[in-house]
Amino acid sequence: QVQLIESGGGLVQAGGSLRLSCAASVRTFSSYHMGWFRQAPGKEREFQAAIGWSDGTTYYADSVKGRFTISRDNAKNTVYLQMNSLKPEDTAVYYCAAANHPVDLGPDDPTAGEYDYWGQGTQVTVSS
Predict the structure, then answer these.
(1) pLDDT tens, position by position, 30-64
(2) What is the C-alpha to C-alpha distance for residues 70 and 36, in angstroms, rounded to an integer?
(3) Cα separation of 36 and 18, whole Å?
(4) Terminal Cα-to-Cα distance of the chain (whole angstroms)
(5) Secondary structure E strands in 1-128
(6) Closest Cα partner for 85 from 61, 69, 109?
(7) What is the pLDDT of residues 11-34, one digit of tens each?
(8) Which residue pairs from 52-60 have beta carbons closer than 8 angstroms and sit at least 24 positions apart in sequence?
């Protein structure tokens, strides 16, 4: 089974940046659609960003568009989420997710149920 391990979370001031990493224990990383979600206490898991498995197409939630960038390095079996201009409302546990099938990127945001595998999460806290 696919295992995903996130890292890079931490405490940052508003306006700062963090880069999250997700290392995948898969043999054919390029065949997986990858995404990032976040979940605050008492809230639903919320889509943040996704990258396609075939052509590298990216898609972002409106709340992070222009601030976050998702990328992947297939040689390293790793997906990244570069987070800039962080806001206190970005505070959450961030989860890496993988799907072994294509996920529609728009017109609606992908849902958590469309993904097959999840990492353990990494905490991001943004102070004002």
Answers:
(1) 788 999 999 999 999 999 999 987 778 999 999 99
(2) 8
(3) 14
(4) 40
(5) 4-7, 10-13, 18-24, 33-39, 46-51, 58-60, 68-73, 78-83, 92-99, 117-118, 122-127
(6) 69
(7) 999 999 999 999 998 777 778 899
(8) 52/102, 52/103, 52/105, 53/99, 53/102, 54/102, 57/105, 58/105, 59/105, 59/106, 59/109, 59/110
